[in-house]
Design brief:
This protein is α/β, with parallel strands linked by helices. The chain is built from ten helices and twelve strands. β1, α2 and β2 form a beta-alpha-beta unit. The longest helix has 15 residues.
C-alpha cells in the first residue's frame, strides 16, 4: 500500500496545480520575478508574469486581456477596476510603497541632495509619461516642489513607462532621469552609477495596490498568489529592493 500511496499523492497534487496570469507594473519587474520563483517552489502553482505600464494594462484588462491579477504602480487603477466591476470587490490591498530616485549611469554625476537639477549641467532628463505612469507623475510633483518644472521641461525625454525611462538613462540617451529605486538596487544597496533618493515628502506616496481581477475569481493559483504576496517571505524580497511594505 505504501508503494501505491506516494505516487497517488503526487498525482493528486499535480491535479490541483494551477497557473496564474499576472500583469505587473514595470517598476516591480525584478522583485516580482524573485517572488514568483519562491511562490512556485512553495505552492506548486505556476506564474506567468507580464510587465508593462499600469495605464496600458488598464486598457488591456478593459478590453478582455486574460489576466487574473494586477500588480499596479498606483492605488487608483485597482480601485477604478473594482468600481467598474472588472475586479473582485474587497480583494485590493497595498503590496508595496515605492520610492523615487534621480539616477545617472555615470558615477559621481548625481549628488546625494539632487542639486544637479538646479545646476542644470545636463541636456536630457528621462521621465515616464506622467499621464500614464505614477512614477512619472511623482517626478513632476518633485520638480514642482523644487520650482524647477518650467526650467527643465524642455529637457524632458518622455518614456512610455518607468522601464523605458530607466533604459534611456542606462544606455546614455539621457544623462539622468527619475526612476524607481527598485530598478537601481542590488542586494539591498544602490548599484552602479549615482543617485539621489528623493525624500518621500516631496511627492504623494506611491502606494502600489494588487487586486484580483474578474477572470481570476475562483482560481486557486490566483488566490494563493495574492496570499503569498502578503507573506514574510515575499515582504523580505520586496523590502530588499527599496520598497516599504
Amino acid at each position: 500500500m505504501r508503494r501505491l500511496f506516494i505516487p497517488l499523492l503526487f498525482a493528486a497534487c499535480a491535479a490541483h496545480a494551477d497557473e496564474v496570469q499576472v500583469a505587473v507594473a514595470a517598476n516591480f519587474t525584478a522583485p516580482a520575478r524573485r517572488v514568483a520563483a519562491a511562490f512556485e517552489k512553495h505552492s506548486g502553482h505556476k506564474v506567468q508574469l507580464s510587465f508593462g505600464g499600469t495605464g496600458k494594462f488598464y486598457a488591456q484588462i478593459k478590453n478582455g486581456a486574460p489576466f487574473d491579477v494586477l500588480l499596479a504602480a498606483d492605488d487608483e487603477t485597482p480601485a477604478r477596476l473594482e468600481q467598474e466591476g472588472a475586479a473582485v470587490a474587497g480583494s485590493r490591498f497595498t503590496y508595496a510603497t515605492g520610492r523615487l530616485v534621480l539616477w545617472s549611469a555615470k558615477p559621481g554625476y548625481v549628488d546625494d541632495k539632487g542639486a544637479v537639477l538646479k545646476q542644470g549641467n545636463f541636456k536630457h532628463l528621462a521621465i515616464a509619461n506622467p499621464k500614464l505612469a505614477p512614477y512619472g507623475a511623482a517626478a513632476v510633483e518633485v520638480l514642482a516642489a523644487l520650482k524647477l518644472v518650467d526650467t527643465v521641461r524642455p529637457r524632458f525625454v518622455q518614456a512610455e513607462n518607468i522601464a523605458q525611462a530607466h533604459q534611456f538613462v542606462a544606455t546614455g540617451n539621457a544623462e539622468l532621469g527619475f526612476v524607481a529605486l527598485s530598478q537601481v538596487m542590488q542586494d539591498g544597496r544602490l548599484g552602479a552609477g549615482s543617485a539621489w533618493v528623493v525624500p518621500a515628502n516631496l511627492h504623494k506616496a506611491i502606494r502600489q495596490d494588487a487586486v484580483l481581477l474578474d477572470k481570476g475569481k475562483g482560481k486557486p493559483a490566483a488566490e494563493a498568489w495574492l496570499g503569498f504576496l502578503k507573506s514574510d517571505k515575499a515582504n523580505a524580497v520586496i523590502t530588499s529592493f527599496g520598497y516599504e511594505v
